[in-house]
C-alpha cells in the first residue's frame, strides 16, 4: 500500500514538474514569438526594394531642381559654394587650412608639389577650445583661434616664408550653417554643437577671423570659406580629374557635386569661366513620402533637437543608427520581456548604444556571438544573453544598416541621374567618380559594401562600369588648403 501511495506521489510530482516546464515553455515561446514578430514587422517597414529606391532617387532629382531654381524652394538648400575653380593637380607651394567644426579646431600646413609630387607634406595641430569661449564673445573666440594659428605658423620652415608683399593663404572650413556670399565670405545663420555666441550671428565669419588675424599681427588672407563636403570634392579632384561629387557618411551626412552653371536659375552673378559650380546640397534634410520610415524613426525625430528636419540624416548617418537599434530593443524588452521580466534601465537612455558598438556586434563572426554578448553586458548591463537572443540583435543591426546603406546609394544615384551620368551614352567614354569620406563609410564595412552593391544594382552592369567610388579622407583639412591654392590671388604670377 505504501508503495502505491509513494508511486502516486512521485507521478503527481512528475506531472506537476512537466506542467511547470510546459508552462515555462509556453511563456518562452510566447516571448520569442512576440519579439520575433516585432522584428519581422520592423524589417518589413524598413524594406528597400529596388523600385522604392528608384522612387527615392527620382524624388531627390525633383528636389534638386527645385532647390537650384529658388532659395527656399526645396527641402534641399542646394547652396551655391562659389567654388568654380577646383584643384587641377598643378598647384604648388605652401598653403594653410583652419578646420573649425566642434569643440576642437585644427590648423594645417600643406606643401604641394604639383602633378609630379602631389601633396608633399602635411603638418597639423589640434587645439581644444575652452568651454567659456564657446558662449562668450566672437572677439574672444576668434582672437584665441588667431593666436593659436600664429603660434603654429611660427614653426614654418624658413624656405617657405612668403616673399615680401605677399600674404600666406588659408582655406577655412567652417562646419556651421552659413549663407555664403562669395568664395571667401559668408554670414553665420546659427550656431550648433554647443556654441552660442549671439554677437556674430548674421555677421561675416571671414571678416571676424580677418580682424583677429590683424590684431595678432599674422599676415594671412582667407582665400576660401568652405564646408567639409566641398573640401572632400576638392581633395579628391586634386588627384583625380574624374571626380564629380563628394559625399560624407559619418556622424552626419551631406553631399556636394559639380553642376553646370547654366542649370542654376537662382545664380545671379557673372557666369564663371569654368562653366561649373560646386553645389552644397545639404542633403541630410531631404524628405520624401517614399522613405521607409517607422514608429521608431518618428519617436527619434520627435525627441530630437530639430524635429521635422534632417529626416534623411536621421535614417542613414552614424549619429542615429545605434539609437534606432536601441529603440527597437526597448520595445522588445517592454512588450515581449525579451531580456526577462525587468526592462534593463540602461536601455532607456537615448544614444547609449553608439553606431561603432552596433557595427562591432554586426561584424561579430564568433560561433557564440561573444562580441554581441559582451557589448550588451558592458553597455546595457544585460547579463546572460542566450545565443538565440544575440542572433536577433545581429539581425536587427542588419535591418537598420541595410536600410541606411541602400538609401545612401539611392541618394548618390539621384545625383548621377540629375547629371545624366546614370546611363552610358553611345560614343562617350566618360568616367564619373564619387569621393566618400566619414567614419561610417570608412569603418562600418557591411554598410559600405551594401551601399556600393546597391549603387551597382541601381545603375545596371553597363553604367556601373563607368562609375567609381573612392575613399577621400580629410577634405575638411587638406581639401581646404587645396582650395586656398586653387583660389590663390598669386596664380599665374611668377615668383621672381
Provide structural commentary:
- This protein has 496 residues and is an alpha/beta fold.
- The protein is 46% helix and 17% strand.
- The chain has helices at residues 2-45, 50-69, 114-117, 138-153, 205-215, 228-239, 295-303, 311-316, 318-336, 355-362, 370-380, 387-418, 439-443, 445-459, 461-464, 475-486; strands at 79-80, 92-100, 104-113, 119-128, 168-174, 178-182, 185-188, 220-226, 243-249, 253-260, 276-280, 432-437, 467-471.
- The strands form three sheets. A six-stranded mixed beta sheet has the order 1-11-10-9-12-13, with helices on both faces.
- Residues 1-28 have low confidence and may be disordered.
- Belongs to the hexokinase family.
- It comes from Pisum sativum (Garden pea).
- Pathway: Carbohydrate metabolism; hexose metabolism; Carbohydrate degradation; glycolysis; D-glyceraldehyde 3-phosphate and glycerone phosphate from D-glucose: step 1/4.
Summarize the structure.
With 496 residues, the protein is of the alpha/beta class. The protein is 46% helix and 17% strand.
Quick tags:
496 residues, alpha/beta, six-stranded mixed β-sheet, five-stranded mixed β-sheet, disordered N terminus
Give the topology.
Layout: H1 2-45, H2 50-69, E1 79-80, E2 92-100, E3 104-113, H3 114-117, E4 119-128, H4 138-153, E5 168-174, E6 178-182, E7 185-188, H5 205-215, E8 220-226, H6 228-239, E9 243-249, E10 253-260, E11 276-280, H7 295-303, H8 311-316, H9 318-336, H10 355-362, H11 370-380, H12 387-418, E12 432-437, H13 439-443, H14 445-459, H15 461-464, E13 467-471, H16 475-486
Helix pairs in contact: 1-9, 1-12, 2-12, 4-5, 6-16, 9-10, 9-12, 10-12, 12-14
Amino acid at each position: 500500500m505504501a508503495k502505491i501511495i509513494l508511486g502516486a506521489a512521485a507521478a503527481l510530482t512528475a506531472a506537476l514538474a512537466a506542467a511547470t516546464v510546459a508552462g515555462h515553455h509556453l511563456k518562452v515561446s510566447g516571448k520569442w514569438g512576440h519579439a520575433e514578430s516585432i522584428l519581422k514587422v520592423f524589417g518589413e517597414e524598413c524594406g528597400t526594394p529596388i523600385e522604392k529606391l528608384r522612387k527615392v532617387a527620382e524624388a531627390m532629382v525633383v528636389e534638386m531642381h527645385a532647390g537650384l531654381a529658388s532659395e527656399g524652394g526645396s527641402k534641399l538648400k542646394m547652396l551655391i559654394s562659389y567654388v568654380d575653380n577646383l584643384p587641377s593637380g598643378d598647384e604648388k607651394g605652401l598653403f594653410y587650412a583652419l578646420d573649425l567644426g566642434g569643440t576642437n579646431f585644427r590648423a594645417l600646413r600643406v606643401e604641394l608639389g604639383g602633378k609630379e609630387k602631389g601633396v608633399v607634406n602635411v603638418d597639423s595641430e589640434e587645439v581644444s577650445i575652452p568651454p567659456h569661449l564657446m558662449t562668450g564673445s566672437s572677439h574672444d573666440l576668434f582672437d584665441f583661434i588667431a593666436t593659436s594659428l600664429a603660434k603654429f605658423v611660427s614653426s614654418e620652415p624658413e624656405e617657405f616664408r612668403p616673399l615680401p608683399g605677399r600674404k600666406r593663404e588659408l582655406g577655412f572650413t567652417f562646419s556651421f550653417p552659413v549663407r555664403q556670399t562669395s568664395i571667401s565670405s559668408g554670414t553665420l545663420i546659427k550656431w550648433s554643437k554647443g556654441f552660442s555666441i549671439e554677437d556674430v550671428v548674421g555677421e561675416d565669419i571671414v571678416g571676424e577671423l580677418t580682424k583677429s588675424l590683424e590684431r595678432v599681427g599674422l599676415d594671412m588672407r582667407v582665400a576660401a570659406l568652405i564646408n567639409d563636403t566641398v573640401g572632400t570634392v576638392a581633395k579628391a579632384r586634386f588627384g583625380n580629374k574624374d571626380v564629380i561629387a563628394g559625399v560624407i557618411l559619418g556622424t552626419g551626412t551631406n553631399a556636394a557635386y559639380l553642376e553646370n552653371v547654366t542649370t542654376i536659375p537662382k545664380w545671379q552673378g557673372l557666369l564663371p569661366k569654368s562653366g561649373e559650380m560646386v553645389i552644397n546640397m545639404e542633403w541630410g534634410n531631404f524628405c520624401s513620402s517614399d522613405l521607409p520610415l517607422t514608429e521608431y524613426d518618428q519617436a527619434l525625430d520627435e525627441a530630437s533637437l530639430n524635429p521635422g528636419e534632417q529626416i534623411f540624416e536621421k535614417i542613414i548617418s552614424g549619429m542615429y543608427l545605434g539609437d534606432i537599434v536601441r529603440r527597437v530593443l526597448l520595445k522588445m524588452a517592454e512588450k515581449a520581456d525579451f531580456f526577462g521580466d525587468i526592462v534593463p534601465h540602461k536601455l532607456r537612455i537615448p544614444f547609449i548604444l553608439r553606431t561603432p558598438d552596433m557595427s562591432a556586434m554586426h561584424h561579430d563572426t564568433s560561433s557564440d556571438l561573444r562580441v554581441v554578448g559582451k557589448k550588451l553586458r558592458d553597455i546595457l548591463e544585460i547579463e546572460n544573453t542566450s545565443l538565440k537572443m544575440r542572433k536577433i540583435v545581429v539581425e536587427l543591426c542588419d535591418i537598420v544598416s541595410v536600410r541606411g546603406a541602400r538609401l545612401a546609394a539611392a541618394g548618390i544615384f539621384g545625383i548621377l541621374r540629375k547629371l545624366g551620368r546614370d546611363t552610358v551614352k553611345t560614343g562617350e567614354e566618360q568616367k564619373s567618380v564619387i569621393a566618400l569620406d566619414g567614419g561610417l563609410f570608412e569603418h562600418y564595412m557591411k554598410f559600405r559594401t551594401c551601399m556600393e552593391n546597391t549603387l551597382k544594382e541601381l545603375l545596371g552592369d553597363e553604367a556601373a562600369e563607368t562609375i567609381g567610388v573612392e575613399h577621400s579622407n580629410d577634405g575638411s583639412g587638406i581639401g581646404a588648403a587645396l582650395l586656398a591654392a586653387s583660389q590663390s590671388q598669386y596664380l599665374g604670377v611668377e615668383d621672381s
